[in-house]
Amino acid sequence: MQINPGAAEFPHRQIADQLKTRVRRGDWAPGERLPSIPAIAEMFGVAKQTVQRAVDQLRVEGVLITKPGSGTYVRGTRRRLNRLSRGRYGGFRGYHADLAARYRQHLVGVGRAPAPPEVADAFGVPDGTELLVRRHLVRTEDTPVEVGASWFLPADTAGTSLERAEAFGRPLYQEAEEATSRRYVTASDTISARQPSREEAETLQIRPDTPVLHLLHVAYDAARRPIEVAQATWPGPMTTLTEEYRVPGPTPEPDPDPGLVLG
């Protein structure tokens, strides 16, 4: 392994690219510890600070993870994650088989809490209004990949199963439809990128400067009234949002007016 001192690219980025190439071709397997910073610095003939910058870059990108007192490891999952919110509804209003096989959702809390601004806006209530919230954490293998919350109006959920701190044996929206007697008809998704909060970074096991993708999912009934407002936050470098769809064919040209003389 070597760097090109005459290249336009900074040395630490050259090192990061070479380390990433070795990870991709399997020289270091997921979960395997890399050589120490001094050892890598000796391989490249550079200062330890240069290697540290390269490792920091790959941590931000989600390729590596550092365990204090232990070392730097290849992240435990090599696949990029796909968490389109419409997948929660499945093909036939049931479990999405692919998501159920790859992800494990854990309920971490149920109760009343002040609505954050984006949730309050979606429901059309003042900021800080107390709403019912069900918070969850999603894992794949041993890696946390999503922190999320589903918010409901207390008037819709009082005395229902949604207030109980228990997981359901079916998708949440099906439980909500039965509990509220309102059917999910349409939904909107707003996705944005931002820096994580301190709590999000700790839960997702990412650096505080690693960008995250944030989803605001609003589900409506037939009268366009919100039933549920859901939030989900994912580590940006590990997450891709992919959707496959049909492209409409060309629209047939209308027949010319027989009474119109052309040319």
Question: What does it look like?
Answer:
- The protein is of the alpha+beta class and 263 residues long.
- Helices cover 26% and strands 27% of the residues.
- The strands form three sheets. It has a six-stranded antiparallel sheet. A two-stranded antiparallel sheet has the order 1-2. A two-stranded parallel ribbon has the order 3-10.
- It is globular.
- The mean pLDDT is 86.
Strand segment tally: 10
- Main sheet characteristics: 6 strands, antiparallel
Q: Which structural category do the helix and sheet elements fall into?
A: alpha+beta
**In terms of per-residue confidence, which ranges show pLDDT below 50 for 5 or more consecutive residues?**
none
Helix content: 25-40%
Mean pLDDT: 86
Gap between N and C termini: 71 Å
Sheet with the most strands: spatial strand order:
4-5-6-9-8-7
**Rough outline:** globular
Percentage of residues in DSSP E strands:
25-35%
Q: What is the radius of gyration computed over CA atoms, rounded to a whole number of angstroms?
A: 24 Å
Task: Please give the count of helices.
Answer: 8
The SSE order reads: HHHEEEHEHEEHHEHEEE
Quick summary:
The chain is of the alpha+beta class and about 260 residues long. It contains 8 helices and 10 strands.
Topology:
Blueprint: H1 11-24, H2 37-44, H3 48-60, E1 64-67, E2 71-74, E3 81-82, H4 97-102, E4 104-114, H5 117-123, E5 130-140, E6 143-152, H6 154-157, H7 172-180, E7 186-194, H8 198-204, E8 212-220, E9 226-235, E10 239-240
Parallel strand pairs: 3-10
Antiparallel strand pairs: 1-2, 4-5, 5-6, 6-9, 7-8, 8-9
Helix pairs in contact: 1-3, 2-3
